[in-house]
Each structure stands twice: as C-alpha cells, then as structure tokens.
C-alpha cells in the first residue's frame, strides 16, 4: 500500500471535524457546548451534520467527545460496549437511572469499559477543554442510543425532538417530525427497572484500568487491557492493548481484520509494506487487514499507544446483574 493510500486511513487530531448537534441534548444548558467526532465507522450520531472520517467497517466504531470545563454528556445507554480512554483533561463518569448509583474520576490515559445496559454520563471537571476517545462495539454500534426519559423531556423544552427513526428534528430551524414518524417513545417504569444500578465498588475494580498501572504492566510486552485474558476481562467484540517503548516490537506483523493505532503519549513511527508515517498523540490510524506493519517510538521520552482490533465475537452485553 502506497503512502498516499495509507494517508487516507490516518485521521490527524488537528484535522478532526466536530459536530455540535450530534445528539438530543445539543441545546440543553450544561450540555450545549459538546463537540462530537466520528473517526471510524458510522457511529451513533443522531444528526445529519456528523462528519465520518473513515467509513470502512472494522467490527467496532471509534469516536471522540470534546468538552469545555463543566460541560456534561447526558445520561444514556448502549446495547453494545462503550469503552473510553481519556486523551486530555479530568473527567467524572457517573451512572444509574438518575446518575447517582456510582461515579469515578479518570485522568489522562485511564480507560473505562463502561458496563453495557446501564445509564451513564460524563462531564469535564478539569480546567481546560478535554477530549475522551471512544470505542463502540459492533459496526452499527448497537443501533443507536437509549436516553434516560428526563433527557428527552429536557431536550423537548429546548427545541429538539428525536424521532422513532433515530433522527433529530430542530424546531429552532423550523423542522418538525415528518408525517408518519412518531417521537421516540419514552421508556416505561417497567422497562427502566431492567437497567442495572451497580455500585462504584462493583464497577471500578472490574471495568476501570489506570494508565500508570498499564504502563507498568507493559514494560516488556504489550499489556492486554480488554479481552478474554485482559486486565479488564471481557469479550465485547474487540480487544485493546497498551504498547509502550519497552514493549514495542521491531518484528513486522499483521492481523486478519483491520486494526487501529491511537497514540496516548509520544510520537510513533508506523512502518508497513510500502511506506511509513509518524503518528502524534490524538491521531488515529487504521491499518488494513493482512498488511504487515510495526509501530515504534520515533523520539525519546514517554511513549504509549492503544491498539484495537476486532475479535469477531458478538458485540454483546458486558454487565450481568447479580
């Protein structure tokens, strides 16, 4: 593959195209300054304004959320896995029907395999604009987002209505639900009872991995972060490894499915049959299946990157209520 062809599979952090109207809470005070990014795959955006950087199916989606301080993402749920790692800033994640069942604060590089099937939200509690990168299970990301009832009600008060077809309609732009399209139904009390409310003590040990712990584990070989044998044992349809300077290998290798490289720290030179490229923190690179490649730090100093590859497993539930 030529460098020109591969360049189309690299999304530079500085070239990310945000969407400020991606979801139903885009006008709701406290959530109206969010920027959403769809990097790989179709994502779960409810807006036609969302730009997709790489539409090639990978078995999972890669996205990102950028938010200024005190901005939050409203309570929602997914039918498949949602994994975040903090690229910049300080973030509070919270979950439960009202967001009060539990919470955890994550710093740069920390990763959270949020249990599927629970309502979750997050907010930037740092002092500057922050970014979190997201991995969503499945090529269709589970068919969209399930919103807590109060989020839908609040959005209606600020001009946004979500149709049962999964699309947003903005009354501030003169839009209305088309004929034959009903509003997205609000979950009933019986349906809401099916959403677990795990305590923090149940979630953090099993679903959160701290960056510096992973760096220590990856001193000689890549640390399996998420996978059947990972620090966070799960089979969400993909595996995540952390690779550092000490565990980067000069040996060329390939996968039978596309893989994704996402630097957290340092600059990385990726070599493949046909060329090479240098990735900086925040960049995302999709390596085609069967292409032999390797990733090595290209400068001195701290160096770490997350590596994601599909396993072909069903992108199913990760949280099973006790």
TrEMBL record:
UniProt-listed SUPFAM superfamilies: RmlC-like cupins
Protein name: Cupin domain protein
UniProt organism field: Hoeflea phototrophica (strain DSM 17068 / NCIMB 14078 / DFL-43)
